[in-house]
Amino acid sequence: MIWSVTKWILGLTSALLVVVAVPVVLLCVVAFVVFGPTEREIDRVVSTDGKTDAVMIETNGGATTDFGYLIYVVDHGDQATGSELASLYGAWQSQTRRGATLRWQSPTCLPPVPM
After folding, report:
1. Run of H or E including 4
2. Do residues 76 and 92 lie in contact, with contact meaning Cβ atoms separated by under 8 Å?
3. 16, 80, 88, 112: which could form a disulfide with 69 (CB 3.0–4.6 Å)?
4. What share of the chain is helix, strand, coil (3-state, %, to 5)?
5. Hey, what long-range contacts does 62-68 have (CB within 8 A, 24 or more apart)?
């Protein structure tokens, strides 16, 4: 008798686990894909000689993180790939504007990033 009750409880627990846990896990995976980390180009400044671009990519890790910024220097018109020149995390220019402003100091030099 006790064995049949135990089997019934285990069967019910397994069924509830499948009915509840599987949809919750699937929902979490879909939410991560739809609302998860993103990267987008937010600024591109051409050097004064027109040969090179400084590119700023904004990264968004989701609701519990601040925005990050990756700075790349690439040939004019190329995609920002490889190792970034600099990175910023949680950078704000004012109370209403986040990020940083890209500008060239000379045709081949970006000014230093303040720490």
Report:
1. helix 2-16
2. no
3. 88
4. 30, 30, 40
5. 62/35, 62/36, 62/37, 63/35, 66/90, 67/91, 67/98, 67/99
Taking the C-alpha atoms of residue 54 and residue 92, their distance in angstroms, rounded to an integer, is: 19
Under 8 Å between Cβ of 85 and 100: no
Q: pLDDT per residue over 72-86, tens digit each?
A: 999 999 999 888 988
CB atoms within 10 A of CB 14: 10
Report CA torsion sign: 75, 102, 42, 48. Answer: negative
Map residue 14 onto helix, strand or coil. helix
pTM over 0.85: no
- pLDDT above 90 covers a percentage of the chain that reads 20
The confidence score (pLDDT) of residue 57 equals 93
